[in-house]
Amino acid sequence: MKKVPLAPDVNSRTIARGTPGFSGADLANLVNEAALLAARRNKRLVAMQEFEDAKDKVMMGSERRSMVMTDDEKKMTAYHEAGHALVSLNEPASDPIHKATIIPRGRALGMVMRLPERDNYSYHRDKMHANLAVAMGGRVAEEIIFGQISTGAQNDLERITAMAYAMIVDYGMSDEIGYVSFNMSKQRDQPVFTKPYSEDMARRIDIEAKNLIDDVRAQTRVLLDERADKLEALAQALLEKEVLNENDLKLVLGERPYALPDHERGVT
Questions:
Q1: Comparing 38 with 57, which gets the higher pLDDT?
Q2: How many angstroms separate the CA atoms of 166 and 187, rounded?
Q3: CA–CA separation, 91 vs 257, rounded Å?
Q4: Pick the catalytic residue: 50, 52, 81, 208?
């Protein structure tokens, strides 16, 4: 493959953090896409911005700037994404935020991207709870600001429900159900699906999943209510700039209080 001339601001560590699971072919495709973007922009060097834009395109689809959104829809999206971001900042076990945007991509009207600070091969229960809370942040922000909810949180709720059940039936993370794993993800791939537990256990699992989700929602509501000024400031910044990077987010929200020390992030 032809060598691609890189600008001094290209950070290979940031690219690696944002492309977990990419194969060599995937990374080659990413580099080619970044080079194409640089050429279209009449740039001599491929800068970090091209890698960021190429990664977003490869992972989430092209920007849909031609999509017409009403002011109300744009405002709802801004507060929704601000809710995700603010919860992420204040959850100790959450990965740090890399970018927040209200520019539609693929099926999403906006997004908050988080990047891990180190390689992860398994998750603790506090990490799973943090991911549940971050996913819940958008829906709860809508409730606080607008007093009603939209269909925009469907994907979040699907992820929340899947995570809650996985914690209970796959990973043994429920004190009520106990240290058991029914490996439901493997069961669902079988030609004939049979639940490996009784109807009584199914009822207990359903109750436990609902209680877990309700608890996360209540905790997320308290977190966002206590930081209403930050929620407002972040939503307004998104409405103004549409895309906020790490530095933009720091200006609005301040430094993240739960960053890992350098030696734990693999920084030497």
A1: 38
A2: 12
A3: 9
A4: 81
